[in-house]
Amino acid sequence: GLEDYELGWRLLDAGVGFVADRSARADHHHNPTLWTSLVRHRAEGKAEILLGSKHPVLRSGLRLMSLPRGGSAWTYKLAFGAPAVGDLAAAAAMARLDAYEKLSKRRRWAQLYEDVRAYWFWRGVASELGSLEELFRFQAAAPPPPTVKVDLAEPLPDPDELRPAAARGVPVDVEVSLSGRPVTVVRVPSGIGERKPLRKELVGILTADPAVRLALGGLAAEPARDTPGGAPV
């Protein structure tokens, strides 16, 4: 698990350039069963500990940095506190998955599958660290995310320029200012650009912050310019 990610990071860190070849083709023969997919997630839990230990700069972007909340909190609590009980609960959940599939209850199936998958991920983490206390130590030792700056009174820079090499695969803290005056700090997650165009997603994240929206409102009477909102104000 994560061996391709780790290789990619070492290449980026070494300054290797990447070029897209539109004619390239790869055939990935992969036909997992439900159980083998869960085994893979347990392996990924173990792999995140190895990856974070080998490359501490990547820790802040790892899945294990955030614990599940609400109805999904059982996944890590049982994985660390009572794995024997958790294994039984996960096995019972798999039986329910079969029932949901036969009844075509797709939404319930998807939610329960996410919980079962999360449980086995945390089982992998727990098997490497042993206790929640060790997990908290591992999290606390993560270096702070890289920081970049954006001034709302200036045109928005190319999003790629806002992501230093060290930030690829980890969150980025964007220090937002207005004409040099600090406004707020916005945490941009590591997965930005995966589902939407990078610029569009960055604009959405910045303008979702109340302090940024308030600052942009203060620019309304000024001459038109390119703003993170994507339109002149």
Q: Which secondary structure elements does this structure contain, and how are they paired or packed?
A:
Layout: H1 3-13, H2 34-54, H3 74-81, H4 83-102, H5 106-129, H6 132-140, E1 147-151, E2 172-178, E3 181-188, H7 198-207, H8 210-217
Parallel strand pairs: 1-2
Antiparallel strand pairs: 2-3
Helix pairs in contact: 2-5, 3-4, 3-5, 4-5
Describe this protein's structure.
The protein has helices at 3-13, 34-54, 74-81, 83-102, 106-129, 132-140, 198-207, 210-217; strands at 147-151, 172-178, 181-188. It is mainly alpha-helical and 233 residues long. It has a 3-stranded mixed beta sheet, covered by helices on one side. A hairpin with a 2-residue loop joins strand 2 (172-178) and strand 3 (181-188). The longest helix is centred in the middle third of the chain and has 24 residues, at 106-129. The protein is globular and about 60 Å long. The model has no long low-confidence stretch (mean pLDDT 86).
What spatial form do the alpha-carbon principal axes imply? Answer: globular
Helix content: 40-55%
* Number of alpha- plus pi-helical segments: 8
- Major sheet size, sense and barrel closure: 3 strands, mixed
Write the element-wise H/E pattern from the N-terminal end onward.
HHHHHHEEEHH
The value of Rg in angstroms is 21 Å
Structural class: mainly alpha
Strand content: 5-15%
First-to-last CA distance = 47 Å
Question: Can you list the strand order of the major beta sheet?
Answer: 1-2-3
Give the overall pLDDT as a whole number. 86
The residue ranges in which pLDDT falls below 50 over 5 or more consecutive positions are none
According to DSSP, the number of beta strands is 3
